[in-house]
Every structure is written in C-alpha cells, then in structure tokens.
Amino acid sequence: MATSNDIKKGLCIEFSNDIYKVIEFLHVKPGKGPAFVRTKLKSVTNGKVVDNTFSAGHKIDEVKVITRKFQYLYEDDNGFHFMNNDDFSQIYLNKEMIENSQFMKAGEEVTIILKEADEVPLSAEIPPTVYLEVIEADPGVKGNTATNALKNAIVETGARVMVPLFIEPGDKIKVNTEDGSYLERVK
C-alpha cells in the first residue's frame, strides 16, 4: 500500500475499479490549507484519461506491472496477435488496448504491459516513431512550394498521413505515432 507521496510518472494504480497509469502529476503545497497531488491518469484497459486530485497521505493501491517485448504478427476481426520473442508463445489483445494501432506493421516490436500477479495483458505501447512506405499520395501541384503545403498520403499500414508536396509513392517516411505527423523522408 502506497500513499499519494509515492506518486510518480509511469506508476500503475488501482482506482475506480480499474487500473490506471500516472501520465502527469503535480505536488501542490498551497500557503493555506493541506497539500495535495493533482494527477492525470490514463486507463490501461480502455485508454480513457481522467484528472484526479489526491489529498496528502491518501492511501493508493499500487499495481505491480512488468513489460515484455512482443512481435506484432497480424490483425483479425477482434484484435491483434503478438508473439513473445523469448519463448514464441502467442498473446491476443483487443483493439481498445492499443493506441494508434494504424501505424503497426507486421514484424514490428511492441512493448506489452502485463499485470505481474497473473500476467494478464493490460495494454501495449508501440514505438514513438515508425518507418513506413508511402503507397498512395495526392499529386503535388508545382508552384505551391512557397509555403509549407501538405498533401494526403496513404502508407503501407493503411493509415493517412499529411506529408510535404515532394513525397511520392514508394518513398519511405518516418512518422510520429503519437499524433500521426510526418517527421522526415528516409533514404
């Protein structure tokens, strides 16, 4: 059993009959009144983000988690299938458990968060950046390069990304998986 003083980024806690990960926190000690901890919590099961304030010394239930590297295999109607690189066992995750899954491609390594007690998968984290090939891109109009003009492109995973006008089908690009933005062209 931990207290609100032990809250730190990345800590997993049991809160409102769900498991949440602390993504932001701030210890506040006002001049008048008791201290408190303002937090932003993200559910590891459904991805919802909630704000909560804990009073100083409030007891919280810490959840022990472990992370393992898995290789993404394929997607079916219900979700995603992964393989453990150490013992080649397979694991299945629902679509709601993975944010920005449209940027995952077969063979890519993904970090899966498991509950330590019974090794039940809670969520998966894809890498912050991925390299994807552009399959289809709108034509760039010559002369529109005076500003940072962007156009639609579809990458090999089927996701839509806004890219600069000089990107053509067949180019490999680096994409930020958090917001789906174009970062650079890869040679």
The CATH architecture of the largest domain would be: Beta Barrel
Note the beta-strand portion.
over 45%
Radius of gyration: 21 Å
**Weakly predicted, low-confidence segments:** none
Total number of distinct structural domains: 3
**Sequence of strands across the biggest β-sheet:** 1-6-2-3-4-5
Percentage of helical residues?
under 10%
SSE string, helix = H, strand = E? EEEEEEEEEEEEEEEE
The first-level CATH class of the largest domain is given as Mainly Beta
- Any idea what the shape is? flat
Class computed from helices, strands and strand pairing? mainly beta
Total number of beta strands: 16
Count of discrete alpha- or pi-helical segments spanning 4 or more residues = 0
Tell me about the biggest sheet? 6 strands, antiparallel
CATH topology of the largest domain: OB fold (Dihydrolipoamide Acetyltransferase, E2P)
In CATH, the homologous superfamily of the largest domain goes by the name Nucleic acid-binding proteins
Mean pLDDT: 85
N-C termini distance? 51 Å
Please, could you describe this protein's structure?
With 187 residues, the protein is mainly beta. It has 3 domains: 11-55, SH3 type barrels, CATH 2.30.30.30; 65-125, Nucleic acid-binding proteins (OB fold (Dihydrolipoamide Acetyltransferase, E2P)); 129-185, OB fold (Dihydrolipoamide Acetyltransferase, E2P), CATH 2.40.50.140. 0% of the residues lie in helices and 54% in strands. It has no helices and 16 strands. The chain has strands spanning 2-3, 12-15, 18-28, 36-43, 49-55, 59-62, 65-75, 79-84, 90-94, 109-115, 121-125, 129-137, 150-155, 160-164, 172-176, 181-186. The strands form 3 sheets. A 6-stranded antiparallel β-sheet has the order 1-6-2-3-4-5, with no helix packed on it. A 5-stranded antiparallel β-sheet has the order 9-8-7-10-11, with no helix packed on it. The mean pLDDT is 85.
